[in-house]
Amino acid sequence: MTEIALEHQPRPPRSVPRGILPVDEEELVACVACGLCLPHCPTYRVSGLESESPRGRIAAMREVELEGAPIDAAFVASMETCVQCRGCEAACPSSVPFGHLMEGARLALAERASTTRSWVRRIAEWFGFAVVLPRHRLLLALTWVTLFAQRLHLVPRRYGLPRLSRSSLREPLHGDHDADTVLFTGCVMDAWQRDVHRAAMTVMRAAGARPGLPGRDADCCGALHAHAGRIGEARRLARRVITSLAGDAPIVVDSAGCGAAMKDYGRLLGTTEAAAFSARVVDFSEWLAVRPPLALRDTGSEVVVQDPCHLRHVQHAHGAVRRVLGPAYALRETDDDGLCCGAGGAYAVLQPGLSGEIRNRKVAAINRAAASGRRDEKGSPIVVSANPGCAMHLGAAGLDVRHPAELLVEALEPERA
Ligand code: SF4
Ligand code: SF4
What we know:
Elements lengths: L2 H5 L17 H4 L13 H6 L6 H14 L5 H8 L6 H5 L6 H14 L1 H4 L2 H14 L3 H16 L14 H5 L10 E4 L3 H5 L1 H13 L4 E2 L10 H5 L3 H14 L6 E3 L2 H8 L1 H5 L2 H9 E3 H6 L11 E5 L3 H6 L3 H8 L3 E5 L13 H4 L1 H18 L12 E3 L3 H8 L4 E3 L1 H8 L6
Parallel strand pairs: 1-2, 1-3, 3-4, 5-6, 5-7, 7-8
Helix pairs in contact: 13-25
Bound molecules: iron/sulfur cluster (SF4) (2 copies).
């Protein structure tokens, strides 16, 4: 049934589910429209528009699902401007699972892409999601091409790509033969930020573990696909990852977005095998925080903590970052209650205006927190973030963003580094 046909049909009685949005009706009606989530929504904070607030988005979903309203341009804009940070979910006293609702809305939009998106965008999405991300060798080859383009100054800084490192790309990671844990390496992070994985493995070894690497086919966890509503592809990738990480060793993930997605495989696939896999997944700092303390020196440095939304609102593991870095760094907190930085998967590319305004607020909060802190040689405050997307997004605004693992390597007593 097309959207055009729906527009010309008489509206059905209220509360008759149409099955247009694949959402749970009970979850959809759980919102009592109290508005307590509004201050925690980055898009509402920037625009002040009800249609760009969690409450407004849920109301729009209800109109489509329960009242037969069309999926029109206003609905698409309301859904696509959501960063999917889930700050609203964490703040909601009625426990509305906004993430599930938005996932259903994004799936419906992805299924209607041929009528709501330009052919340029559809080809770009197909190439990125279906061709490149699931094929790690192709992603690495394209990364080499991008690296040379960067050296020739052909990649504008506004694209937000980190400066790619030739030596990092050349040098493969080496897992331990008798591994007792696995470090998940994933897609974009392994291609663009492999040195973070290297730092994570150094810290894991200093903590007494023997980290191994995933087998073939763990090319991509599917987090970006799920974010974009490409649930079928996300499920296929999740199955591949599960197959490639057989056994019962803990799976340490140093990307907050990937970790959140992999902890959700049980729900995504609905199998006991997937649920058992998800139970093995642990964020890097979460894993480290419950082990005997590392031998760290007090660096005397001050660092501003940026909580990635998928670590704070989804995994609820942001406290672990503070516990592992606290002995070595003076940690400074932002005063924005963990508001999103505006990265959100491909959000910065698809919604550059809103994403930039959200980032400006985050940068201002970081600068306030760092007002009396240590600056690096360029004068930037040092920021710690456990998510590659946030690190790249904030790095493109000129901030010096490090991963907790990188800061820990700097602080390890020399004999342990
Ligand atoms: S999502 Fe939760 S906090 Fe937001 S308006 Fe609905 S009930 Fe209130
Ligand atoms: S997920 Fe984030 S951007 Fe989307 S409605 Fe909730 S708070 Fe706003």
